[in-house]
Input
Amino acid sequence: MFKSLVVFSKNISVYLSVFLVVSSSAFSQNVLEESLGQIKTQYAPDKRTAIYEFETRNDTLFVKTDQVEAYSKSQTLLKSKNAAYQLTKLPNSALGTDTLALINVSVANIRSNPRQSAELATQALLGTPIKVLEKVGGWYRVQTPDKYIGYLEGSSFEYTKENSFPKVIVTTPLSFSKQKPTKRSANVSDITWGNLFRLKGEKGKFYEVVYPDGRIAYVSRKEAKPIGNLSFTGSFPVKDGLVNSGKEMMGIPYLWGGTSWKGVDCSGFTRTVFLMNGVYLPRDASQQALIGEKVEFNNDFSLLNKGDLLFFGRIVDDQPKVTHVAMSLGNARFIHSSGMVRISSLDPQDEYYDEYNTNRLLFVKRLENSNNSVYYLNNKTLY
Output
């Protein structure tokens, strides 16, 4: 009996020792992950525009980021804790020097995850420069000029070493490039407003252009212009220009993640309208809400200017949660993508009165004369 108790006591001691070691290890791991979470909060609070990811697999911490300071801090932390880790800085070194690319289709669909069934996060137009961050299977994680991050198929872009060559921009909503400089020639591909081509020369009534993958095509001079001829001045555009651009898109269907004439969501619509007039807005409504200056109008619609941005949503924990954006047409009327691009009004006496959106209006922002993160395009490099 006594021997049995001794054996039992020894076994209990062993089990307790193992339990304490495992518990201590788990505690240390939790503390370490908490510290990594703090780094993420500091340097990559918005996963739409910055990357900081970490997970534990087989007792090894895998950390990935595109933020230089976050990478440095993570390395210092992980070394100090003698942790087993793999730290990756993006763009991934496996890509070598190939990190600059150009979109090679009229409208590229950038998804939230590397699969066709994933949510459409945003779109990028032909000729748009993108940063390639890493390869994931047959997909690539990329970042657009507005810092938006998502996944793109490799067939949608071409790597390039430079992007400073002469360009033409397509100025018609929808058309086709041609194999020869005649209207009856076979098509090369569809084209849409905002597509950028390298300009090779002119042939009669056509521009001879080059796709990022080297294909030669011809675009009617009525449907494009050299970007040097754009009226982008580096300042806030003429308000009637914004209104006219918005109205040109009337009836275009709503498309979640859409930012082109083929379909737009609410923020994709305002972004496209401002892009057509030389202002590069952030991608999402909640991001657009962070720029410009607030307009206090107290239901006096006469204080609303053409081009003001109206933000809608709800209050969550005493804070505004923006879920929709529209552009003011002046006074009570506004234009937005809701089902399709349409005109609505805040005025109950107006035939376009929109009770639903009126009741969820949060605030109005004005970009004109604002120094708050408003980015203007130029007519030399565009992006």
Notes: Confidence is low (pLDDT under 50) at residues 14-24. The longest strand covers residues 306-316. Residues 94-159 form a domain with the SH3 type barrels. fold (CATH 2.30.30.40).
